[in-house]
Amino acid sequence: MEKKQQDLNQLKKEIDALKAQIKENADGKSDTTLKDYLTSVNKHPDRPPQPRPRRTLKGHLAKIYSMHWSGDAVHLVSASQDGRLLVWDALTTNKTHAIPLRSSWVMTCAYSPGDGGKFVASGGLDNNCSIYNLQQDDGKACRELNGHGAFISCCRFISDSHILTSSGDHTCMLWDIEKGTAQHTFAEHEGDVMGVAISPDGNNFVSCAIDMFSFLWDVRTPKYIYRFEGHESDVNAIAYMRNGRAFGTASDDATARLFDIRAGRELRAYGKEDEQSNGVTSVDFSLSGRYLFAGYDDYSCIVWDTLSGEKLHTLQGHENRLSTLGVNVDGTALCTGGWDNLLRVWA
Hints:
By secondary structure, the protein is mainly β. The chain has helices spanning about 1-30, 35-40; strands at about 55, 65-70, 75-80, 85-90, 95-100, 105-110, 120-125, 130-135, 145, 150-155, 160-165, 170-175, 180-185, 195-200, 205-210, 215-220, 225-230, 235-240, 245-250, 255-260, 265-270, 280-285, 290-295, 300-305, 310-315, 320-325, 335-340, 345. The longest helix has 28 residues, at about 1-30. It is globular and about 65 Å long.
């Protein structure tokens, strides 16, 4: 027994030495920063025009916690603690579906991919992920996915047949919707997992949690590929850049951060040098990835230049906490949602 313990201690030392060696090797290849590179090439990009509010979507009677665009770039779904999922036409501001939820304590919603999104999903404090078929008007869930041991914080469709969920039980799960069973459980976080984002090719995803870490995963295996660190408080939201090579995070440490997957490290923090003191609730990128949109507890949305880290614009309009935002698939519109019960579409 004593020899076994000695062997374990020796293995732990070897593992720690290998980790230190890997980190030293990675740090050695980090020969510049985004800020230094821009200074060296002397590039000063033009400031883009400020996005203006184009539509206000009114209909929810309580705080909005989540929204997600459809693949057709026109429709979106929103979830509110009034106990309803609403599907909107963002051009006309008309509601196309109103779905009553089993529990009003909803935290997330998602639209299935593709031009004619067939399904929407929701999850929250009832620990279930509910799937609704928009081609059926009965307002009932066509599938209830029950397997998490705590609240569902985020859900995202990979396809019409598979969905990914994150939970306060410290795990993410990949579900087969048809069978109603979990195919994989991803368990490496040491705290409530608050968000997931799926890569453009659908083979990978990233997750974030209150343990201050983000993980990169392959959906086909339950072992993580890489762990990213840098935040100093809870990480609330995460979003892929459209090229799939980087992702952004939003944290209670008052920063949004950009991580490069190939480099395996943080490239830039947004808000750190601006004495920003409000927590970041949500994050997304423009179509090109040049601009990062971050939602804040102080009711605002800030547009950041991802390269220079410059604050380009501050979007004001909500009268309470901005809790969710997203850019549509063709990059022509930004939608923000807040605790003032409103959704605003900017372009």
